[in-house]
Amino acid sequence: MSTVDPVEQLLANGLKNLWYPICPTGFIADKPVSLRRLGYKLALWRDTDGTLHALEDHCPHRGAPLSRGVNLGDRLQCPYHGVEVRCDGVTTRVPGSPGCKLEGSQATRYFHVTEAAGAVWLYNSAGNIEEAPPLVLPEQLSSAEFSHFLCYAEWRGDYRYVLDNVMDPMHGTYLHKQSHSMSEGESHAKFVTRDTDTGFIFEKDGQRGVNFDWTEWADTGVHWMRLEIPYPKTGGPGGNFHIVGSYTPISRELSAVFHWRCRPLTGWQRDTWRFLYKNRLEARHWAVLEQDREMLEFMEPDANQRENLYQHDLGLVRLRRHMKNLAKAQLELIEARQL
Amino acid sequence: MQQPYLEPHQARTRVPNSFEDLLGDSIERAFAVGIHDLPGLVGYLNQAGPTCPGGEPWTEDAYKTLMARLGE
């Protein structure tokens, strides 16, 4: 009989009190959708004016999936017994037993959701809260200087393998050697770490703008990662190609993988890059990501329990340690009932 | 068990047509030889093709108008 390590469990489900990307905005229409994310089964739907809502997909009466029910605008009606649950988690009506204790009680988990950069974002609060903090994204996704496209994919495996992969720039030189953008530069490197206001940068000592040479990890109320890769000459004017990534657990076996491909362009250059992206670059970028996906999906779930790490791995070691410390701190707050 | 979502084409709304493919080829070739300015690109398209929709020579305005639509 194995005991469950609470730190491990918290990390596997995703740390609390952070914004997470859930799915592309186009996944949610007026018909309620059920998605597993962050250790929950969620019901997501749109109100008559398009506003997004998210409840735990669990009727407070007997746990039937609310997502299979009727969209009544700001509330869902459970298909099982007609119980109505509003977007703030309050049961507004129990038609089979009017006036019962369940009526009027906030018996359902609800979540704050918003839309940005083509994705639905959910605030993973530890409990029901009145208001969520603002969603703060990197300039690549929030500034008009940048144009971006979202690429969303679901990869088999724990999301932390995806974090490790992005925190490991050196794999670009090997795994992505035959890609359209990562054939240049030295095949060995020494890495250094640099602190930032929101996290840290892990970078090759002395090589910049040649290959996948650095990764930034940041916490702005969202955990996101950022890197830049030079485009080949055929990519035209506009300098490097920026990638912002954010990763959300679906289950122990599946991860929601979000990459925004961004470039600082305006005017005809922006439009040209967007045309080329839709016409051909998207397929090339996809081929690179597929190399990552296949590598990670072929790794055993416990691969990270037997490793021999070396200098290139300092970044992922630091990130793992940091995440673990965040989890420990959150657990202490949860146990003290302060979260 | 639902299959994981793996869709290579998330940006486009339809399969490109052959004019768009030829245009993409030509733009990439121009970029590859270091043409990064709009007059240079328009000159290259007039010399190498494809023909501007409507049959007139490419102009900066015609290019910008078309790209604004294709790059939405």
Element-level helix/strand string of chain B:
HHH
CA gyration radius of chain A, whole angstroms: 22 Å
What is the annotated CATH architecture of the largest domain in chain A? Alpha-Beta Complex
Q: What portion of residues of chain A is helical?
A: 10-25%
Global shape of chain B: elongated
Q: How many strand elements of chain B?
A: 0
β-strand number of chain A: 17
Largest sheet of chain B: none
Please give the count of helices of chain B: 3
SS strand fraction of chain A:
25-35%
Structural class of chain B: mainly alpha
The CATH class designation of the largest domain in chain A is: Alpha Beta
Number of helices of chain A: 6
Number of structurally distinct domains of chain A? 2
| CATH homologous superfamily classification of the largest domain in chain A | Naphthalene 1,2-dioxygenase Alpha Subunit, Chain A, domain 1
Number of domains of chain B: 1
Largest sheet of chain A: 7 strands, antiparallel
Largest interface: A-B, 33 and 29 residues
Strand order of the largest sheet of chain A: 11-17-16-15-14-13-12
If you average the pLDDT of chain A, what whole number results? Answer: 94
Task: Report low-confidence residues of chain A grouped into runs of 5 or more.
Answer: none
GO molecular function (chain A): 2 iron, 2 sulfur cluster binding; metal ion binding; oxidoreductase activity
Keywords (chain A): 2Fe-2S, Iron, Iron-sulfur, Metal-binding, Oxidoreductase
InterPro entries (chain A): Cholesterol_7-desaturase, Rieske_2Fe-2S, Rieske_2Fe-2S_sf, VanA_C_cat
Domain Rieske (chain A): 19-122
Describe the fold and architecture.
Chain A has helices at residues 6-13, 139-142, 159-166, 171-174, 267-298, 314-335; strands at residues 19-24, 33-37, 40-46, 52-56, 70-71, 75-77, 84-86, 91-93, 110-116, 119-123, 147-156, 191-195, 199-204, 214-219, 223-229, 241-251, 254-263. Chain A is built from 6 helices and 17 strands. Chain A folds into 2 domains: 15-124, Rieske Iron-sulfur Protein, CATH 2.102.10.10; 139-325, Naphthalene 1,2-dioxygenase Alpha Subunit, Chain A, domain 1. With 339 residues, chain A is α+β, with helices and mostly antiparallel strands. Chain A has a 7-stranded antiparallel sheet with strand order 11-17-16-15-14-13-12, covered by helices on one side. Chain A has a 6-stranded antiparallel sheet with strand order 1-10-9-4-3-2, with no helix packed on it. In chain A, helix 1 packs across helix 6 and helix 3 (159-166) packs across helix 6. The two termini of chain A are 30 Å apart. By secondary structure, chain B is mainly α. Chain B has one domain (18-71). Chain B is built from 3 helices and no strands. Chain B has helices spanning 18-32, 38-48, 60-70. In chain B, helix 1 crosses helix 2. Chain B starts with 17 loop residues before the first helix and ends with a helix. The relative contact order of chain B is 0.12. The interface between A and B is medium-sized, with 33 and 29 residues.
